[in-house]
Design goal:
The protein is of the alpha+beta class. Helices cover about 25% and strands about 40% of the residues. It has 4 helices and 8 strands, in the order E-E-E-E-E-H-E-H-E-E-H-H. The strands form 3 sheets. A 3-stranded antiparallel sheet has the order 1-2-3, covered by helices on one side. The chain has a 3-stranded antiparallel sheet with strand order 5-4-6. The chain has a two-stranded antiparallel sheet with strand order 7-8. The two termini are about 20 Å apart.
């Protein structure tokens, strides 16, 4: 997996496990992380995880539609907001404060691993909150 930032048009090209193994994805981040979603699922037929970060809602609809049209056998489909993935994860419950204490890693790092934090940084230009 690699990312490449094109300074001219402000797009980031990502090679990763997206819909096809050879697919490259271009992301043009508009500065509003609330508009983006991570889609991931297990492709039963190809026996692999498909992960597609930084999709706008129309991209999410296209991915879901393609799964249905191609009658793909998938399981564990998740659509998660990039905003939530960028937040520090809730750790242990604190009885005294009646709230969760924040962890030192983001939800993204907890679910997908540290390299996905690096990908998010290269797309957004915003340093991850993960403290490793």
């Amino acid at each position: 997996m690699f990312t490449h930032k094109n300074q001219e048009d402000q797009t980031t090209t990502i090679n990763f496990n997206c819909e096809t193994k050879t697919e490259q994805k271009k992301v043009k981040f508009n500065g509003n992380i609330e508009e983006y979603y991570m889609v991931d699922y297990f492709d039963v037929e190809e026996c692999r995880w498909v992960r597609s970060p930084f999709n706008k809602m129309e991209d999410v609809f296209r991915i879901i539609t393609n799964i249905q049209i191609k009658d793909k056998k998938v399981k564990d489909l998740r659509i998660q907001s990039e905003e939530w993935l960028s937040e520090l994860r809730d750790n242990q419950w604190n009885e005294e404060t009646q709230s969760y204490e924040k962890d030192t890693i983001t939800n993204r790092c907890n679910i997908f691993g540290y390299r996905y934090d690096r990908i998010a940084e290269s797309i957004t230009g915003i340093k991850s909150l993960t403290q490793i």
